[in-house]
Amino acid sequence: MPTINEILTTMDYGPAPESQKEAQAWLDQHGRSFGLFIDNAFSAPGELFASTNPADASKLADLTQATDADVDRAVEAARRAQPGWQALGGHGRAKVLYALARLLQKHSRLFAVLETLDNGKTIRETRDIDMPLAARHFYYHAGWAQLQAEEFADYRAVGVVGQIVPWNFPLLMLSWKIAPALAAGNTVVFKPAEFTSLTAMLFAEICVQAGVPAGVVNIVTGDGRVGEAIVNHAGIDKLAFTGSTEVGRLIRTATAGSGKKLSLELGGKSPFIVFDDADLDAAVEGLVDSIWFNQGQVCCAGSRLLVQESVQDRFLAKLRTRMDKLTLGSPLDKSIDIGALVDPVQQQRIAALVDSARAEGCTVYQPACDIPANGSWYPPTLITGASTSAAVSQAEIFGPVLVAMSFRTPPEAVQLANNTVYGLAACVWSENISLAMDVAPQIKAGVVWINTANQFDAACGFGGYRESGYGREGGREGMYEYLTALSEDARPAAPLLEVKGKVKAAAAAGNDSPFAVDRTAKLYIGGKQARPDGAYSRAIHGAGGAFLADIAEGSRKDIRNAVEAAHKAGGWSKATAHNRAQVLYYIAENLAVRAEEFAARISAMTGNKNADKEVQASIERLFYYAAWADKYDGLAHQPPMHGVTVALNEPIGVIGIVCPNEAPLLGFISLVAPAIALGNRVIVVPSEAHPLSAIDLYQVFDTSDLPGGVVNIVTGSADELARTLATHADIDAVWRHDGSAEGCAEVERLSATTLKRTWVGGAKGRDWYSTAQSGGRAVLAHASQVKNVWIPYGV
Predict the structure, then answer these.
(1) Which residues does the entry assign to the active site, renumbered to this chain (predicted)?
(2) Do 308 and 251 share a domain, yes or no?
């Protein structure tokens, strides 16, 4: 007689089809043809394109290809509605968001089935993952709307927001974007993916039922031309895009110099790290959820398996056995694990990448499974033997394909994990929590899951590092993406000019003035003075025309040397916040000792008759950011899981900074201090017109225990050096605040190549004496990036 275990292992799941009757009836009610949703009404259908079921290639409905004129109408409607929506107040907006959440729950099965028909993902995923989380986002952000006046008192809504999402999570991405935008008081022009627009049309209907005022939510459908029209529209104040890195670069380039706020959630090549002490069976299940969830069409899919060499063979054997049991078939069958790919073009791309791995000598394992004759399908695939530089190891395949390789030690695991241009997510599996928590901060990714995978919640920010984009969705940090600091509205229309007074001519040589001897000021790189590589210098004259000194003319080679020195100073990022605070206090202390000397230098350069005020403000600003260094803490979230999510504020890395010409010392300190307070290293281009007070700071740095390479100073042409900073592959962010509109636009445009984070001032000035404009969390947010580490417990 067979045992219970033998019976269980031989059991097969029978078909468990989900009814599509209601979804088909809803499509029939609309004549299977949809116009655009603008000003709370559907327009008559225009030029049409088909939306098909990926599982059988059958046509579901026709949708309208929006035109530029349609986008104009949507933006105009959003602009008209925005003041009233913001004036409704937090409680008024909260009630509407709450109503949307309730309606999503009320119609959750209709949404789920429609999503499965349109996208090809399994009904278990749309029903059990997408729908609950979509409703959760509206509930959660209804709370932020209620609390906005209290928790974001110093911020206002951005205005009109353009939002563009991909086809892999159509309704969930809609919720991620629309909920925080509406909570903050913005209105939206939303573009769903061309392949998967049907749930957005259903959402438009419930917007009317929920009492969303006309013009607050506008939905325009179509191909990439519609997205391009939204990106280029002058009436859009902020863009939020989720999609490919390639398109993200195009958007960053197109919006350069426009002043539009921008958040990008882009591609990924996420590592799934398994240490030898991990629960291997649990890790296999986590891996299945990580790479074969949604057919691998997930930006944060764990597509790179890194398994410790000592357990590699055993783990891969378990994995192949598990792959053999995965079922592929009709997405509406509740017993199915893997559904259809969204489109034949996607299937062809995946197949071509796998074929390239075969051609390179890799081993490709695919379980035997029946593939339906119609529709777009691809079996779960495991590739071993690929080199770290192979196409399948580096490219985002965006399909059910896993590439596996081994490592020996934790440092090697981290090195392999970071061997990618992306940085969206990672998984770490180990029963040693100390090891896991040591590795997690070292991985360059915005989300790290420990002993779990693909966990999401509205309270926990999601977003990437490097070429996975910037900005966060969800959590408090996600709300900031849709808000503008009120202090930005108070900025002067142009850079402030110094108040000049009568200045004595520079003292003659031999005088006891500290600046009496003519000299050529050198660069400051790696904690040492350095001669410029090009051996050129530039004369600096004072306000009265008197010669003050020559300065080094920095070049591309000097920036390269500074970047190398900054990377060697990586220990600064690992130093304790207390230690960094102490160093900033020392800098302030040593600057105070030489306050009169620096005031005289500023007065000689600029003619400012109140130069001592600038020096005192600089000392105070150093104290200010020293105070923040060990107080800019992360958060501990409690999402609806058995565990905790720790949001860490991490340094960006190496930042290039172009300083303002006004307030040459205070502007320098106001930008450098927050950057290094949070553990970044910087390459600074001081005021092009008045650089000498910044150059003299190297003497202060040398006596303040600041490690060499943390601050590197390269003088010269702001335009030339900013161009080099923006195009350097090993610089993580560029800030430019010298008032050059064209120069700031160029920094944003050139940064698109590697998708650096940028913070530019445009043609407007900034009151560097004002803490509201030059301090606080808004500035610290530019100097940091949030990493959410998910830690389950008791499992």
Answers:
(1) 265
(2) no
